[in-house]
């Protein structure tokens, strides 16, 4: 029996055999491979993007895998920005992804391979999660597959794949699926606890995703309460139980190091900036189809260049609009007010329409965006760019698109419905397909000196030289992330670092290290307790600079004792004479 058009949340659906679910997963896996080609055959040698953010996230994956064994209770006391104690909390911590993929790091030691798997899995799991959510909301298998296609592969989400701290939002639809199930037909404590489990998984995987999901959950609960849902706090707490409270505990505890990190680095509590996006951003995407469509728009739309890709797609928006325009509450006109409210309360279409509008309002930024009035809330100020709320909007539009297809195909025979779903799925793939992905060769190659240090008695503290004398912040940051990746050879404390903000002590130390060695820089490092200096002669851009540095190292030989000489680097122990 076909599922009714615009079925209410929790409406019973025909059960599918495990073979059908496996087939759906394989379809999404095949599409993930096709969309990211040729990355799947270059997982150990190439990355989707290079730069400070990807290198920071590579380091974070490695640090977490190391700390799980060596200091699990003080994992946020990372090895960068010595002597800071909460450096992992200066940005996204990647703990959720590390919990899943640490065994691969332990077995292979390959952070590039692991990061690529994190990014690819986020695409496939996002599609699977949206499929599950759509099924729990009463959509047919075909409609749910289309919803999964939109959330997994729509350009506004897919082209952020290189930003692993943003793309790992795959647990949002899983959480919402079990929340709707609990609030709908089941009311079972098990479904509430599963919703909490996936909420915690999202909090640990991505701070951005945690904010998006929190907005969605509170919007869902507020929507139902406004439309007559009894709050029933005692029952909800009983259903959550001790088990649910223990599951939720990590999401609460993870706030503590972030609070402590703000005490170390007040700059983490960023000021509200004007991050509104240009008009062209809302119709821009890098896919060939969308680039062609963009060229047909009036010049005033594209007058300012896009600062983000926020266009979800033509077909998803059309299907979502069909769902919104055609939806009607499934009650008779003579029904009581309570029955009418219940019909609205349990209906996914109006809720996800409101959620899409709410997310879009967030993306607008100052002065008319919702961001201005929520920025001061806990955790919200950690996200500076409101346009990233488009990721939540994509999920809402994906669900609406599934309902739009269900309405369009409501009178069709199963065979015709299947053909139509296949045709729309193909059109979505054509509209979203990026073509061959641009990859960059990349390898983490600690110097011979860093590898030698791994055999020295621990703990110790390291500073690496040279630091570029440049006004270019990117140049300076790239050198710091290089030294962070060098530290993966020994995982001991280093004075360098790059993250969402920089502690004041390193801001003051950095210009001193540019002139290293001299009296001021040597005294500063000794006062910090630095044990070793790793010297990289080949990193000086000009022969004259290298010769000058070599002369200064010789001049301060009573401070610097040679411990190791390698082909590409040297190690000095540091002593105040």
Query: What is Rg?
Result: 27 Å
Strand content: under 5%
| Biggest sheet record | 5 strands, mixed
The strands making up the biggest β-sheet line up spatially as 4-3-5-7-6
- Estimate percent helicity: 55-70%
Oligomer: single chain
Kindly, what is the distance between the CA atoms of the first and last residues, rounded to a whole number of angstroms?
Answer: 86 Å
- What class, by secondary structure content? mainly alpha
Total helices: the number is 24
Q: Which descriptor suits the 3D outline? A: elongated
- DSSP strand tally: 7
Provide the residue-averaged pLDDT.
Answer: 89
Provide the low-confidence segments as ranges: 1-5, 7-15
Characterization of the model:
The protein is mainly alpha-helical and 577 residues long. Among the domains are: 169-432, no CATH class; 448-574, no CATH class. It has helices at residues 18-36, 52-70, 95-108, 111-136, 141-153, 155-158, 164-167, 171-186, 189-205, 207-226, 233-253, 255-264, 288-294, 314-326, 337-345, 348-363, 371-374, 390-408, 414-432, 448-453, 473-486, 504-514, 519-528, 543-555; strands at 46-47, 440-441, 461-465, 493-494, 532-535, 560-565, 570-574. The strands form two sheets. The protein has a five-stranded mixed sheet with strand order 4-3-5-7-6. Strands 1-2 form a two-stranded antiparallel ribbon. Mean pLDDT is 89; it is low at 1-5 and 7-15.
């Amino acid at each position: 029996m076909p599922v009714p058009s615009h079925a209410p949340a929790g409406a019973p659906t025909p059960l599918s055999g495990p073979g059908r679910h496996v087939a759906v997963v394989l379809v999404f896996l095949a599409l993930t491979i096709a969309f990211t080609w040729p990355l799947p055959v270059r997982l150990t040698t190439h990355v989707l993007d290079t730069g400070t953010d990807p290198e920071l996230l590579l380091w974070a994956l490695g640090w977490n895998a190391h700390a799980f064994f060596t200091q699990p209770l003080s994992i946020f006391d990372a090895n960068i920005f010595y002597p800071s104690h909460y450096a992992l909390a200066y940005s996204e911590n990647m703990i959720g992804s590390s919990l899943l993929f640490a065994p691969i790091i332990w077995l292979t030691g390959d952070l590039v391979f692991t990061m690529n798997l994190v990014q690819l899995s986020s695409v496939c799991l996002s599609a699977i999660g949206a499929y599950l959510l759509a099924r729990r909301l009463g959509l047919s298998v075909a409609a749910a597959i289309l919803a999964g296609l939109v959330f997994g592969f729509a350009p506004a989400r897919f082209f952020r794949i290189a930003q692993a701290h943003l793309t790992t939002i795959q647990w949002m639809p899983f959480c919402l699926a079990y929340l709707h199930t609990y609030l709908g037909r089941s009311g079972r404590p098990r479904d509430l606890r599963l919703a909490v489990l996936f909420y915690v998984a999202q909090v640990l995987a991505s701070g951005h995703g945690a904010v998006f999901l929190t907005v969605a959950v509170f919007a869902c609960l507020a929507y139902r309460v406004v439309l007559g849902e009894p709050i029933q706090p005692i029952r909800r707490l009983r259903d959550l139980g001790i088990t649910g409270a223990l599951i939720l505990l990590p999401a609460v505890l993870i706030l503590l190091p972030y609070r402590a990190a703000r005490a170390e680095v007040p700059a983490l509590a960023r000021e509200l900036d004007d991050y509104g996006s240009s008009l062209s951003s809302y119709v821009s995407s890098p896919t060939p189809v969308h680039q062609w469509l963009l060229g047909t728009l009036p010049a005033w739309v594209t007058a300012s260049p896009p600062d983000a890709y926020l266009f979800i797609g033509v077909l998803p928006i059309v299907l979502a609009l069909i769902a919104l325009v055609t939806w009607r509450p499934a009650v008779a006109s003579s029904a009581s007010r309570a029955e009418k409210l219940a019909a609205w309360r349990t209906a996914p279409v109006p809720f996800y329409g409101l959620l899409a509008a709410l997310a879009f309002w967030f993306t607008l930024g100052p002065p008319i965006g919702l961001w201005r009035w929520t920025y001061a809330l806990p955790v919200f100020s950690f996200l500076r760019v409101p346009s990233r709320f488009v990721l939540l909007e994509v999920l809402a539009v994906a669900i609406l698109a599934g309902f739009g297809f269900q309405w369009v195909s409501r009178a069709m025979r199963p065979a015709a419905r299947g053909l139509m779903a296949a045709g729309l799925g193909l059109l979505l793939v054509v509209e979203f397909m990026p073509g061959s992905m641009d990859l960059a060769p990349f390898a983490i190659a600690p110097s011979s000196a860093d590898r030698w240090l791994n055999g020295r008695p621990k703990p110790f503290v390291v500073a690496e030289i040279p630091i570029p004398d440049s006004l270019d912040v990117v140049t300076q940051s790239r050198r710091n992330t290089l030294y962070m990746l060098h530290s993966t050879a020994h995982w001991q404390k280093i004075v360098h670092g790059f993250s969402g903000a920089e502690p004041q002590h390193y801001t003051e130390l950095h210009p001193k290290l540019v002139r290293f060695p001299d009296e001021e820089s040597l005294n500063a490092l000794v006062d910090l307790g630095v044990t070793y200096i790793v010297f990289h002669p080949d990193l000086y851009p000009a022969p004259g600079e290298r010769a000058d540095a070599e002369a200064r190292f010789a001049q301060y030989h009573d401070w610097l004792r040679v411990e190791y000489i390698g082909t590409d680097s040297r190690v000095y122990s540091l002593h105040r004479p």
